[in-house]
Write a structure and sequence with these properties.
CATH topology of the largest domain in chain A: Rossmann fold
CATH topology of chain B: TIM Barrel
Largest sheet of chain A: 7 strands, mixed
Strand content of chain B: 15-25%
Helix content of chain A: 10-25%
Shape of chain B: globular
Order of helices and strands of chain A: EEEEEHEEHEHEEEHEEEE
Shape of chain A: globular
Number of helices of chain A: 4
CATH superfamily of chain B: Aldolase class I
Radius of gyration of chain A: 17 Å
Radius of gyration of chain B: 18 Å
Order of helices and strands of chain B: EEEHEEHEHEHEHEEEEEHEHEHH
Number of strands of chain A: 15
Oligomer: heterodimer
Chain lengths: 244, 294
């Protein structure tokens, strides 16, 4: 974890309410895909956790949906805005057990962290299948970006207005060596129940600090209590308990 | 330059800044960020006899200039703390730590206090009779003079370490409760724990926090905490630790003018993990600027 000042370089809408923000700053503490950053915003007490979509040495890409005061403030930020960011939070995905043809599943605003994961897996020479799920055609983003990485991409929409009709679990390939997923909890449950392979799922929870101090985001797992912010957000499939 | 060191119940602190229980874990997350030996001390996560998972999530909400939490005393239990957390802490923190203790019965407070009394690393026992987020015990012991005194007396009987009673602001007369603790043998008072509050999500019409209510903390409670410290320090002779919304070195000074011997910093650590370090670095300059002398 590092406290870094980032400068907004670009901040553009991808859909009606999903934005892509490109920032410049020290990204050295982001070591794995699936990690997140915690952003301080004017007039709001708690920081806002946003997953890392992409990073290079100097550049960070965040994709966020406007859901409240914090993300609405972010959407209005012009280039040049400086942001206090706690960078490199959470455990992120472990690509070691992925096998030769991993499956990457993203639903809605669960799609962004899967981009850096897919980039990493493709870079490791894996044959990656990607299934992206959205509600409607107008919600779809990043399909071409995933394709440009060399992945085999399937898009599903709930209403069938683009790609296949149905949920991500209706578009799973026949064969895969391992699965990685991020999305809303009902999607994660469905993936958990229909995926035949081992895998890793990334969870969301309302956080206080984002770095393991406050116990605000704890959950029970097979291996004991875990803090989503510090011991997660990524959990191995075999340690997940569905309690709630 | 203003003198930074203070005497807290017979133990000297290099400075009066103490991260508050529940915002600093058992110190290890922060030790990765800076040398935590610069702190006066810190109060570790509220510890109970048995391990506790705490309340269901969501446990956190936000408000203007502050936050609410209903963590519900999640902790691994006193035996685990002694076996794992304290030895790990010893490697990175070379000062006495403040042990925050909670319980659902007087017997449980006594049980945990007896075990932690034997730990050389522990300097003070801070007895939490003010947690608003647990059903049994917690704040239930801190809302009457009789029960606050009963816990104080029972804990004092099993320890030679200084006993600091952490009080709830959710009472009619906090100074009277502080006085009852002093009369029962308490060596210090910490005020205040969080204020009971709630938030409702307009999209669902339902409470944001699964526990419905939570404890309010952050800069928005600072004036309430300051008032409590002012009232308590005029009612008792034992040292008072000011806690509630302290975020800047200026807040520390204000607390000290109100009568605090030391201060605890809580929610600020969660927003800025370097908050205590920054406060300590600025404190002597701020004391000098305002000509503060003890």
């Amino acid at each position: 974890m590092k406290d870094v000042i980032f400068t907004v370089k670009k901040n553009v809408p991808l859909t009606k309410n999903v934005y892509e923000m490109t920032l410049c700053g020290d990204t050295s503490d982001i070591t794995r895909p699936g990690q997140f950053v915690n952003v301080k915003l004017d007039g709001l007490y708690l920081r806002r956790p946003i997953s890392v979509c992409d990073k290079t040495d100097e550049k960070l890409t965040l994709i966020y949906k406007t859901v409240g005061k914090g993300t609405e403030q972010m959407a209005r930020m012009p280039a040049g805005t400086e942001l206090s960011v706690l960078s490199g939070l959470g455990n992120g995905y472990d690509t070691a057990p992925s096998g030769d043809h991993p499956l990457v599943i993203g639903g809605g605003v669960g799609v962004p962290p899967m981009y850096l994961l897919c980039k990493r897996l493709c870079g490791e020479g894996k044959h990656v299948s990607v299934v992206l799920g959205f509600n409607r055609a107008c919600d779809v983003f990043y399909e071409d970006k995933f394709k440009a990485l060399g992945a085999n991409v399937t898009v599903m929409t709930a209403d069938g207005s683009y790609g296949g009709k149905g949920f991500v679990t209706d578009g799973l390939p026949a064969e895969y060596s391992y699965c990685f997923a991020c999305g809303p909890e009902p999607m994660l449950r469905a993936v958990f129940n229909s995926c035949k392979s081992d895998g890793q799922l990334s969870f969301e929870e309302r956080m206080g600090c984002g770095f393991g101090a406050c116990m605000g985001c704890s959950c029970s797992t097979v291996t004991g209590y875990k803090r989503i912010c510090k011991d997660g957000p990524v959990l191995y499939k075999e340690e997940i308990l569905w309690e709630k | 330059m203003g003198k930074m060191s203070v005497d807290l119940c017979g133990i000297e602190l290099d400075n009066p800044v103490i991260p508050a229980s529940g915002t600093f874990g058992y110190g290890l997350e922060f030790a990765e960020l800076y040398d935590i030996n610069i702190l006066g001390t810190f109060s570790f996560k509220g510890t109970t006899r048995e391990p506790r998972f705490g309340n269901p999530t969501p446990r956190i909400a936000e408000c203007a200039s502050g936050m609410l939490n209903a963590v519900g005393l999640q902790n691994p239990g006193v035996e685990h703390v002694i076996k794992h957390e304290l030895p790990a802490l010893k490697k990175v923190f070379h000062k006495k730590v403040m042990a925050n203790i909670s319980g659902s019965s007087v017997e449980n407070y006594v049980y945990v206090s007896e075990l932690l009394d034997r730990e050389e690393q522990v300097g003070w026992l801070e007895i939490n009779i003010s947690c608003p987020n647990v059903k049994a015990g917690g704040m239930g012991f801190g809302t009457s003079c009789e029960s606050a005194a009963a816990v104080t007396k029972a804990v004092k009987a099993v320890t030679r370490k200084p006993v600091i009673m952490k009080l709830s602001p959710n009472v009619t007369d906090i100074a009277a409760i502080a006085k009852a603790c002093e009369d029962a043998g308490a060596d210090g008072i910490c005020a205040i724990n969080t204020l009971l509050g709630m938030r409702i999500d307009l999209k669902t019409g339902k409470p944001v926090i699964a526990n419905v209510t939570g404890g309010v903390s952050g800069p928005c409670v600072f004036p309430v905490a300051l008032r409590a410290v002012y009232q308590i320090s005029r009612a008792v002779k034992i040292p008072v630790i000011g806690c509630g919304g302290v975020s800047r070195a200026e807040d520390v000074l204000e607390m000290m003018y109100a009568g605090a011997t030391a201060v605890q910093v809580g929610a600020a650590n969660l927003v800025d993990p370097y908050a205590c370090k920054k406060i300590i670095e600025k404190l002597s300059g701020v004391m000098e600027r305002y000509g503060f002398r003890r």
